[in-house]
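Q: What would this chain look like folded?
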Amino acid sequence: MTGHAWRAAALMLIALGALGPGAGARAQPFWQGKNVQLLIGAGSGGGYDISARMIARHLPKHLPGAPAVVPQNMPSGGGIGLGNFLYAGAPADGTSLGVLPREIATAPLMGNSAAKFDPVKFAWIGTPTAETNTCLARGDSPVRTHRDLFDKELIVGDAGPGNGIHIYPKALRALFGMKFRQVAGYTTSAEIFLALERGEVDGICVSFDSVIERYSDWLQSGKIRILLQGGAMKNPALPDVPFVMDLARNEEERQALNFLYAGLAIGRPVAAPPATPADRVKALRDAFDATMKDPEFIADAERSKMDLSPSSGEAAQKVAESMLSNTPRVIARAKAIMESGSK
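A: My prediction, written as structure tokens:
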């Protein structure tokens, strides 16, 4: 064999992994033969759970090595428990992801002593949708409009600290004196809707996507009525529903409301542990972005009546950073609103 032919053969053997221990293994995609755990910071049956399981079905074909993505619910503390685990307990190698509550970015700033994480340090992967929070009442409730909330009590289900079902009625009661009475003991929006149907509660403040995905027939029939909407901006699908930001009576209230509702811009975010290697974070982000454009995923979302308005991991990172960059005065005001709302 000539020197040139020998070198060519040697290069081919190296490419095939036949030279040197582990050379072939190094050429394989990291995720090949592995499972990726997708932890969901909410109980089963709710909007978070539905969208997370949809992502789990379609993400694998866009990740190198096509690993299985295995969803698992972890709703403790309104998702705060998942935030703590993802931050410091989960494997930081690309095999652990979490679907976090959108309000997770403000939890440590708002004095939630259970939150043991820095939201900016999560490796944000992306979100399938921006969200609008809606406060709604049962059709036979005496609360017919948001104005009625100033003198008529609305009993709403509460899924515990750490999520919007708990935060937004509490904030509206504290800031404007709206007569929300929150009843704890529920873990998911699905449980609260069941309680609403049974007459145990009169309403809920919940993602509009959750309403459309599962209870659009209730809206159409008048079984439920939307009283208010809140978010980073007014939802064009709700042109006649009052916008929370328009209720602000001064700049201080407007800034506090912006801070409290800003997390809705990151919808139902997917994140990885902070120490996940940068190249794997990039691969996860690329796979997520490709999933959001996948015709099969889009068709699946349409069947589930999920409103897709995806954002990249980089965009979610910027939202988290912007929330934490608010002045201490704005943060203190928002924290005071929530503390007074517990009295």
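The first helix runs from residue 3 to 15.
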